[in-house]
Design a protein that fits this description.
The complex is a heterodimer of chains A (about 290) and B (about 350). Chain A has about 290 residues and is an all-alpha fold. Chain A is built from 13 helices and two strands; from the N terminus they run αββαααααααααααα. Chain A has helices at about 10-50, 60-65, 70-100, 105-115, 125-135, 140-145, 160-185, 190-195, 200-230, 235-240, 245-255, 260-285, 285-290; strands at about 55, 55-60. In chain A, helix 3 (about 70-100) packs antiparallel against helix 4 (about 105-115). Chain B has two domains: about 30-125 and about 255-325, Periplasmic binding protein-like II (D-Maltodextrin-Binding Protein, domain 2), CATH 3.40.190; about 125-255 and about 325-349, D-Maltodextrin-Binding Protein, domain 2, CATH 3.40.190. The termini of chain B are far apart. Classes of the chains: A mainly alpha (about 290), B alpha/beta (about 350).
């Protein structure tokens, strides 16, 4: 960068160097870019293409179908679930990550292991485990009844509640890990400096620590948010048939109706929604901060 | 003498080897089905028999459903000669023109009721959607039909139904007093109104056969509308937390799985001969020896292969067939898409 603006006798040489460097970097990045092009961009373009085709002609029919109220409800369910799960994950994840970041190396390692442990277990197993825990004669209801806290078993699963519980459990590590990475990198001298300048512990935390940890929080929120938008297994198993997410509509269109066009249209709509939210959040917070800059 | 017998033996061996090779090349057909216990039963009851009688081999493959058949036919060179699909799927494929016409002589068999066959589809097994319940909460009281399923006062507790308009709309109309023989065309508005009244009590809308009885075994619900084979298997199973289970065939809805031939099947004639054997009453009856499914050809009950005890547990046996009705697949082929959308909206409200 500085080379390009350099003045002086060797300016031309510096510029040539800079160009060479850009070429080499470009070549190094090429396989990665190509891979992204092949596995991400091309399929998305194809998806879009499918969504406007019927036979040999162009059509908006697949999008028109989405005006049915069944799809509107699904979209609403998907976003409600996504916002709720993301919020709960942030509320649970932040203190947890803070605790791990403050702990001694050894304790931190053990705590991290607990966070990571569920990730190594199959998603299906975890969903069925929640089913066993939460159902009417499950452990939770049995304990609550034995403790005399409830007379009738609570409906904890086969509904929105159960789906939320299951998804929070599955998503929590994706919130904690980026938060922990960011928090671990925060120099504690800043907090000490704040204290030294007369800040109370809570002031130091709010005005120094929290702002420094925000990139981690933003990263966690975005990962959780985007994964939640496409969730399928947990709502299907714990939702009791009532919770119908957008991805379940996609599956239904593909398998029941063998209708790639309609399913593609659903995919395009979800992608557009996610990008729109990204854009809106970016306008408010700034893209650099979301993408991990300062 | 000795040399001659050797020569004969050698010649026979050569003939067998050559003939065997030729057989393996030409005289084999490929059949696809659901895999698992069902396909094993088909192998025992039908495929072995066909192989023996026609001197051919049957190659087996599995199918996940309608998309497979569509893909095979679209390829222009299907590898399957026959496939097992739900009767509804068959009717849909028939409408799309993706099936070969079956031999009219096979379809003509009066043993298979006319609602369970068409020019391109021949039902092979029959099962039904029946009411299953946990005995403990109801004691001696028995829910006899969909009216009782809706009656949460006399039969308090949770319900489970299929998360699909098929079966659910019929059940609702019967519960609302529509006679079984006057269901079609379905009065959809009335069905959804009735369904609405039960909705708060439906704890789980099941999405798979396994789930439909799991919720009963776990004691999660008191009553389900589910496939008879699943309920009966759960009854025979070790008792879960839900305790002993029971089933009734009253107001059952009979459905079937069918044989069909993808358009352009490679060994049409041979496969048609195989189909004729598999639809024979004796072959049909013997499927029930291997799995808890009923023969689509009711003449199977006259063969003596099905014992009275077995017949009591089969939906279309002479003593049970009159208790219910056969689902009108044609109505569903025409209305399914609209009903699914409406049902999905209904579910989420």
């Amino acid at each position: 960068m500085t080379a390009a603006t350099a003045q002086g006798p060797n300016a031309a040489e510096l510029r040539a160097d800079a160009r060479r460097e850009r070429l080499v970097l470009g070549a190094l990045a090429a396989p990665g870019l190509l891979l992204i092009g092949v596995v991400a961009l091309a399929p998305i373009a194809w998806l879009f293409w499918l969504s406007v085709r019927k036979g040999d002609s162009y059509t908006l029919e697949h999008y028109a179908r989405l005006l049915h109220s069944s799809y509107a409800y699904s979209l609403q369910t998907t976003f409600e679930l996504t916002f709720l799960v993301t919020a709960i994950c942030a509320l649970l994840g932040y203190p947890l990550a803070y605790l791990i970041a403050q702990a001694r190396q050894r304790t931190a390692a053990i705590l991290l292991l607990f966070v990571l442990f569920p990730v190594w277990t199959s998603l299906l197993v975890r969903c069925y485990a929640w089913l066993v825990l939460l159902q009417r004669r499950g452990l939770v209801n049995t304990w609550l009844a034995d403790a005399g806290l409830i007379d009738l078993p609570l409906r904890l699963v086969h509904n929105f509640t159960g789906t939320t519980i299951g998804m929070v459990h599955i998503m929590l590590p994706f919130m904690v890990l980026p938060l922990y990475a960011t928090m671990r990198a925060i120099d504690r001298d800043y907090v000490r400096a704040a204290a030294n300048l007369g800040a109370t512990p809570s002031q130091a935390f709010r005005h120094v620590y929290v702002p420094l940890s925000l990139p981690g929080l933003a990263a966690g929120i975005i990962i959780v948010f985007i994964l939640c938008l496409g969730f399928y297994v947990t709502p299907a198993l714990l939702g009791g048939g009532r919770v119908m997410t957008w991805s379940m509509q996609i599956e239904r269109n593909v398998t029941y109706h063998s209708d790639w066009g309609a399913a593609s249209a659903l995919g395009v709509v979800l992608l557009a929604m996610a990008l729109a939210i990204f854009w809106a959040v970016g306008r408010v917070i700034g893209f650099n901060r979301i993408l991990g800059g300062r | 003498m000795k040399t001659r017998s050797w020569a004969i033996l050698a010649a026979t061996c050569a003939a067998m080897a050559l003939g065997g090779a030729a057989d393996a090349q030409q005289r084999s057909i490929t059949i696809s089905s659901w895999g698992g216990a069902f396909q094993k039963a088909q192998r025992e009851a039908w495929f072995n028999l066909v192989e023996k009688e026609l001197g051919i081999t049957i190659k087996e493959e599995t199918t996940q459903g309608i998309a497979d058949v569509r893909a095979q036919v679209a390829s222009g060179k299907p590898t399957w000669d026959l496939t097992t699909q739900g009767y509804y799927t068959c009717a849909l494929l028939e409408r799309e023109g993706r099936l070969e016409k079956l031999d009219p002589a096979i379809v003509a068999d009066p043993g298979v009721p006319k609602e369970l066959k068409s020019d391109h589809c021949m039902s092979q097994i029959v099962y039904s959607v029946a009411i299953g319940w946990r005995k403990k909460p109801f004691g001696d009281k028995q829910p006899r039909g969909w009216d009782a399923f809706w009656n949460v006062k006399d039969f308090p507790g949770g319900r489970s139904m299929r998360r699909h308009p098929i079966y659910s709309l019929e059940a609702a109309l019967i519960a609302d007093g529509v006679p079984m023989d006057k269901l079609y065309p379905l009065d959809v508005d009335r069905a959804f109104r009735k369904l609405e009244s039960l909705k708060p009590h439906v704890v789980v809308w099941w999405a798979s056969g396994a789930q439909s009885v799991q919720v009963l075994q776990d004691g999660e619900v008191e009553m389900v509308g589910a496939w008879n084979g699943r309920i009966q298997a759960a009854m025979a199973d070790k008792e879960g937390r839900g305790g002993p289970l029971a089933i009734t065939f009253d107001q059952q809805m009979m459905v079937s799985d069918a044989w069909m031939m993808p358009k352009g099947a490679p060994n049409k004639d041979l496969a048609m001969k195989a189909l004729a054997i598999m639809m024979r009453p004796d072959a049909q009856a013997s499927i029930s020896k291997y799995i808890n499914y009923a023969p689509a050809n009711t003449k199977g009950y006259d063969t003596g292969i099905i014992t009275p005890e077995m017949a009591a547990g089969l939906p279309n046996s002479p003593q049970n067939v009159g208790k219910g009705f056969t689902l009108d697949v044609d109505w569903w082929v025409k209305n399914n898409d609209e009903m699914v959308k409406r049902f999905d909206a209904f579910m989420q409200r």
